[in-house]
Amino acid sequence: MALAHARSFKVPEGRLIPQQNDHAAGSTVSIECNEGFRLNGMNSRSCSQSGDWVGEKPRCTVKRCRSFRVAEGRLIPQKKSYATGSTVSIECNEGFRLNGVNSRSCSQSGDWVGEIPMCTALECPDFPRWIDNGEVRITYSRESHEHRLPGTRVSYTCRNGYKINNIRYQTSVTFTCLTTERWDTNPSTASCVKKTCPPLRRIINGQMNPIFQEGLRHPVGTEVTFTCSSGYRLTKTRPLRCRDSESWSRTQPKCRVIRCRSFKVPEGRLIPQQNDHAAGSTVSIECNEGFRLNGMNSRSCSQSGDWVGEKPRCTVKRCRSFRVAEGRLIPQKKSYATGSTVSIECNEGFRLNGVNSRSCSQSGDWVGEIPMCTALECPDFPRWIDNGEVRITYSRESHEHRLPGTRVSYTCRNGYKINNIRYQTSVTFTCLTTERWDTNPSTASCVKKTCPPLRRIINGQMNPIFQEGLRHPVGTEVTFTCSSGYRLTKTRPLRCRDSESWSRTQPKCRVIRCRSFKVPEGRLIPQQNDHAAGSTVSIECNEGFRLNGMNSRSCSQSGDWVGEKPRCTVVNRFVNIYCPFPISRFPECNRYNIKVLVCTVEIVKEFDH
After folding, report:
1. pTM, whole model, 2 decimals?
2. Which of 131, 221, 314, 504 lies 20 to 30 angstroms, CA to CA, from 197?
3. How many beta carbons lie within 10 A of that of residue 574, not counting itself?
4. In what order do the strands lie in the sheet with 153-158?
5. Residue 243 contacts by C-beta under 8 Å, 6 or more apart in sequence?
6. Are 63 and 84 in contact (CB under 8 A)?
């Protein structure tokens, strides 16, 4: 009986010891994994008497290091596990520092080499948690209440009247913890100090309260008052106040010598004349010539810098205005200063009688008599006109007809016009300020309207009888007749119109002529367009036609032909014509005056036409 054997088996990434193709029953093999792999299962197997391996086949799996956690830090790269031989880097979150190695390696055994490092918080140095005359406010950089982590901000705010030391005007300051574990500026240096205004200068010839101290800075809210020594006055009286901005409310005043500012007296002068006057001094007041002083003739400057008593006035010695009927004063005022002169002018249409100016004397009276303005007049004019009427338009409410601006209008009745003015039936004359009419109204008259003279009519007569150069009055009708053998070009009479023009052009007498006439199938001898009155024409018919009527006609003196117009009719003409009904459709039947009784019968007949 043969001994049983078992075939060798394979373990991926591992090996059998001993290594052979098969193994005898009862033998045992060891299993080892390659480097970097670990054995999962039994490390040996036995070959049974039946030739099978006892137990499950083990496996070789890769050795890996499991990921680890670093508080407030992270692994790079970040994985669940890492292969043997690989390395991870460790970094801390912002605001934390790494304590330990910054990397770890996964050993062949699947374990990490070295200790897990730690991330510890960065911290800035401690800072004052309170400040005199102010308050502290901390703004945390994270949810953690670690006050000194990077990003933490510490703010100091001073109360009213205080500021941060060494920072002009600033009442608060903030310090920030940097990632370098330092503050951007040391918060321990912060303090709240009183706000103060710059030192004031010593006031000359005066005092200040509080009392002046060289270089003394005054706290905010301080009020400083100033007084001056006797004989001096402050340039500004209100106290100075030290404002929250560490500046004074206004510039520091000065003490200046008390003086009264000079004052003005219109139309007067001060003696002495200067811009200002010392306290205790006195000035005299005088008025200019033509003015009188109302009030005291002197004033004194008091120790307060004010003038004693009311300011006097210089009022002009004046002449009261006067009235000139129909005139005016230039310039026009209620009263006039002494020595002044006014001019006198008269209104339009009036003439000045007397002086044209007056002067106001130093006593306030006018020199000379008041002049008068008398009305200007144009020469008299006709108050009536033949064949017309007169209309006067007054220049003023006065009924003086001949004042400048008066207008006299002459209007002619129908059929008349103003002399020497074509077509015009009215004229107006105006009285000028020169006491003349623009045109002499005495020259105006209404004359009959007439039409221009007619020409002598050749070979005719006119009624009224023609007179060389005769002008015909408006409304005249002129008729015309022609001599024997002549006829008028226009038969209606001419009428002289109101516009002094004839109703139409003058007619002419032209030779009477008879217009030529036509004879169908015939002719006139001589043949021409027209024939003179008294002439005779012969009439001949064409071949095959006979003349019915006179063989001649005469042109009468009226331009008409004498007698009936003859006709040419067909002679011995036979016609065979078939004329179906209706015959009106055939001009041949109508031409020969054929009457068809039976349309199928041939008609033969002599016709006269």
Report:
1. 0.33
2. 131
3. 9
4. 134-139, 153-158, 172-176
5. 197, 220, 249
6. yes
DSSP alpha helices (H): ranges in 431-509?
none
Q: Phi then psi for 585, rounded to 5 degrees?
A: -80, -10
The set of residues, in sequence order, having a beta carbon less than 8 Å from that of 367 and lying 6+ positions away, is: 358, 359, 360, 361
Nearest to 149 by CA among 140, 137, 157, 158: 140
Question: Is 237 part of any domain?
Answer: no
List the structure tokens of 177: 């913890």
Taking the alpha carbons of 427, 431, 436, 441 in that order, is the dihedral positive or negative? positive
> Is residue 95 pLDDT above 80, yes or no?
no
pLDDT digits (tens, 9 = 90+) for 130-145: 899 999 998 887 655 5
> Rounded to 5 degrees, what angle do the CA atoms 156, 162, 164 make?
45
Q: How many domains does the chain have?
A: 8
At 236, list the tokens: 């500004």
Does residue 296 contact residue 309 with C-beta atoms inside 8 Å? yes
548 with 579, same domain: the answer is no
Same structural domain, 434 and 397: yes
Answer for the pair 178, 151: CB distance below 8 angstroms, yes or no.
no
Query: What gap in Å lies between CA 126 and CA 145, rounded to an integer?
Result: 14
Is 492 within a domain? no
The percent of residues in the chain predicted with pLDDT above 70, rounded, is 91
Query: Smallest Cα–Cα separation from 12: which of 47, 61, 85, 54?
Result: 61
Show the domain range for 541. 513-570
Assigned domain for 221 exists: no
The rounded distance, in Å, linking the Cα atoms of 176 and 174 is: 7
408 and 428 in contact (C-beta within 8 Å)? Answer: yes
Instruction: Give the closest residue to 472 by CA, choosing from 447, 455, 449.
Output: 449
Q: What is the DSSP letter of 225?
A: E
> 526 and 540 in contact (C-beta within 8 Å)?
no
Residue with tokens 């207008």: 407
Rounded Cα distance between 24 and 20, Å, is 11
The rounded distance, in Å, linking the Cα atoms of 450 and 467 is 15
pLDDT of 377-394, one tens digit each?
Answer: 888 888 899 999 999 888
- Chain centroid to Cα 148, Å, comes to 65
Write the single-letter amino acid at 510. Answer: R
